[in-house]
Design a protein that fits this description.
The complex is a heterotetramer, with two copies of chain A and two copies of chain B. By secondary structure, chain A is α/β, with parallel strands linked by helices. Chain A is built from five helices and 15 strands. Chain A has one domain: Glutaconate Coenzyme A-transferase (3-Layer(aba) Sandwich). Helix content of chain A is 16%, strand content 30%. In chain A, helix 3 packs parallel to helix 4. By secondary structure, chain B is α/β, with parallel strands linked by helices. In chain B, strands 1, 2, 3, 4, 5, 9, 10, 11 and 12 form a nine-stranded mixed β-sheet that branches. In chain B, strands 6-8-7 form a three-stranded antiparallel β-sheet, with helices on one face. Classes of the chains: A alpha/beta, B alpha/beta. Chains A and B meet through helix 3 and helix 4 of A and helix 4, helix 5 and helix 6 of B. Strand 6 of chain B pairs antiparallel with strand 6 of chain D.
């Protein structure tokens, strides 16, 4: 498995039957493919529906049915359509069990930066601030470093998307929880040593007493 | 009561310098024909309120590429590199707003509210320059109501009175914008007689809609 | 015609084709029966729809379709259903051309009191404050006095429903507009003398230069 | 995921002193069976948020008559003389709120907003004791978000996942309340399989709904 697959596979284990989840664009979208068949999760798409299903075969594409990335998708039985106000009432109102998002930086206090690099890249926050602020559980899913540069920081120095909202960070190297004491490494990928993982992380890792291999 | 008008007549209502709301999400559920006609008209110095600036060749983004836009208020501009370029070169003012806040601001404009209090953006650069209101010990950003001179929206099926059904994910900002502008012009994929739409399926009442134009298939 | 019929008939002439109107409970509801067949107005019902039609014959009553007074009604072609938030977005957002309401008191400044008599009658404001605050034109339709007691005041002394929002008062005696200079009598019912009308009115009436009989 | 439960199990979740939202408008679109079971249960000291207190023998009003209610937050109590009597005798606290403001407060509770700014009630006794916020020279009342422990709502057709279709004028406060309570119990006139409802006709997503009970025909 490549790093992205490792991450998506592991994130998928965070959910339980019936969870309502919003998956960000990019890597987080891949998570849907790894959810166990024993459970059913309900995917919310912030452009206006719940019950997001996989991409259709080409001849079944409907021009009006796309995900928040603009890609053709399907809607599952039991889904429904709504407008942007309702969509964000669901998100902001605490009705999502979890959201999975990428990050430019995330830090040991649970701060997240993923919407701009001043003077360089300013795509905008889209729905990310609402997702980070509203979901019960915010999971950051990303490669551990940006080609070697730290992304898991003591303190983010990029403009924040949300302050103190991240619950968990899942990378190809391991799983880290944001705790009051700091960043707790609870699982690691045995392809890496703990030293390598720490080196790839600016924040100081606290090693969990029940540390295990990534499930 | 509601009159079908030509695309030209619709675009003629738009004046240089006006504030427009334009529906759609990544160019899905956008009034494409109205955008194309506006493009041809050359109207300029527009302020555009929209979810995103689409792509360089699709949706609201075309107006940016054609230098007709003075200011954009949106949640996302990342899929249209021209928006970013013009912003960085100081040619275009861009106000970025969290998507849910933008939805509430437009809704508030249509609902006669002064604004809403949202926790989203607290502790981020979004709160800079905003009024902060404390309610029961929690800090909220005061997000003011937004209104526009004209809203250009898309409808999947529109009846003669202007009642609108939005198919699937085309709904997005369209019904909110339909409530929040002085003049509301809907581009209809299909126009039907009054009474043909199930009154439970209509998401925008015709009383919000000023004019109907015929859109693409 | 009895006084209520005179009032309802005259109020109906206030509308033009295409107007969106909310009629309050009681006398204002009667107005619908007098609207000219040459024009079509769209009635909004604050419990959740537009396109309010007349009461159905008994065997056609639908239990789920009632007006804001709880009475069985019908919906016309081109009407639609919505929730209370949308209903009041329409009302508060300035999307009603007119509303017609009764009053306990109304005054020359356009103030209206119709929701409580302290210590005696406290039914609540229901949707009246929103209607008075939101409609483009607020028409008070009522009998000129309460069994001889003044209702059209220099200044309301009951708790207000809205301040300075009333445009016009229509009674069985005449039609009065709220102007910056005061209460302008523009039409009168020739069954009454101007003296009788003034006597029935606490506020000082200004007689319009183009005063005419009630149309 | 959503479980159908018995009316008794539903009422057992309600505790003395809880805050309940109860849907309906003049007892149309109210959860009548749940109200009747709550009546029988004798639960007391309830705070009820509702549009109106219905009638002495219909809707929320029955709970007032049965002395189970400590406080009512509503827009209208005039059709139930018992509400007025208990209020005047100091037995019942009544907070009267303009109907549109009440709708926004419940909606704000469900939408994670701190509140909304409304011009309605300015210059009337409604503004007494409220925080006034000025926006661009206009005065607004800060109407705070409302939430409840449990919402009891009515649905015309409900699917197994809790998605709700409301027929005709039964919608009123039901979808707003469905978003704003910790536990949401819908009384369904008819229960259908998941997928049987047109996804455009659903006004309340099942994800808001905790439990479904079978209602009257």
């Amino acid at each position: 498995m490549n790093p992205k697959e490792i991450i998506a596979r592991r994130v998928a284990k965070e959910f339980k039957d019936g969870d309502v989840v919003n998956l960000g664009i990019g890597l987080p979208t891949m998570v849907a493919d790894y959810v166990s068949e024993d459970i059913e999760i309900l995917l919310q798409s912030e452009n206006g529906f719940v019950g997001l299903g996989p991409a259709p075969e080409e001849h079944l594409v409907e021009k009006d049915l796309v995900n928040a990335g603009g890609q053709p998708v399907t809607i599952k039985a039991g889904g429904m359509f709504f407008d942007s106000a309702m969509s964000f009432s669901i998100i902001r109102g605490g009705h999502l069990d979890a959201t999975v998002l990428g990050a430019l930086q995330v830090d040991e206090k649970g701060n997240l930066a993923n919407w701009m690099i001043p003077g360089k890249l300013v795509p905008g926050m889209g729905g990310a601030m609402d997702l980070v602020g509203g979901a019960k559980k915010v999971i950051v899913a990303m490669q551990h470093t940006a080609k070697g540069d730290h992304k898991i920081m003591k303190e983010c120095n990029l403009p924040l998307t949300g302050r103190g909202k991240v619950s968990k960070i899942i990378t190809e190297m391991g799983v880290m929880e944001i705790t009051e004491k700091g960043l707790l490494l609870t699982e690691y990928n045995p392809e890496f040593t703990l030293e390598e993982i720490q080196e790839a992380t600016e924040a100081q890792l606290i090693i969990s007493e029940s540390l295990s291999e990534m499930i | 009561m509601k009159k079908k008008i030509t695309i030209d007549a619709a675009v003629n209502m738009i004046e240089d310098g006006m504030t427009l709301m334009i529906g759609g999400f990544m160019a899905v559920g956008s009034p494409h024909k109205l955008i194309d006609a506006l493009l041809k008209s050359g109207k300029k110095d527009l302020t555009i309120i929209c979810n995103d600036t689409g792509f360089v060749d699709q949706g609201v983004g075309k107006l940016v590429v054609n230098n007709q836009v003075k200011k954009v208020i949106a949640s996302h501009i990342g899929t249209n590199k021209e928006t970013g370029r013009q912003m960085n070169e100081g040619l275009l003012e861009v106000e970025l707003v969290p998507q849910g806040t933008l939805a509430e601001q437009v809704r508030a404009g249509g609902a006669g509210l002064g604004g809403v209090l949202t926790p989203i953006g607290i502790g981020t650069p979004v709160e800079d320059g905003k009024e902060i209101i404390e309610v029961d010990g929690e800090r909220y950003i005061l997000a003011k109501a937004m209104k526009a001179d004209i809203a250009l929206i898309h409808g999947s099926v529109v009846d003669e009175k202007g009642n609108i059904f939005y198919n699937q994910s085309t709904r997005n900002f369209n019904p909110l914008m339909a409530s929040a502008a002085e003049v509301v012009i809907v581009e209809a994929e299909k126009i039907v007689k009054s009474g043909e739409l199930d009154p439970h399926l209509i998401a925008t009442p015709g009383l919000f809609v000023s004019h109907i134009v015929e859109g693409a298939e």
